[in-house]
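fyi for ur records
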Amino acid sequence: MRSVVLERLETSDSGTFGRIIADRLVLYTGELPDRNNAANISCIPPGTYTCAYTYSPRFRRRMYGIEPVPSRAGVRIHSANFMGDSAKGLRCQLNGCIALGERLGKMDGQKAVLLSAPAVRRFVDLMAGETFNIEVR
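which gave:
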């Protein structure tokens, strides 16, 4: 089984940002701020998880899901730009999932993951629907 590494580089109210490394592909990641694994407001805890390409009823398509995340369900890898703490007035498009992007930057003055949809396509193409392990550190 293939292994993928997600290295977190920084976390703040704007989100948790890092990079994901799969073979020779390196993409940037965005997650919610670290709020002790609280559902819908936090990134997932560090650890090793299994990712399987499964159908998401919420998104109505197949995408990579991450399991088992303690006390959480429905954690996916998908496109998004904003992952800020909405309770602090920041824009957010995640509920605990991991967004991929080609770059990190700013949109409307807020830190964001950029070129997200193309990054997700590149990642899914590379992984080819195969199940893999992801180490989050």
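The mean pLDDT is 96. thats all i got for now
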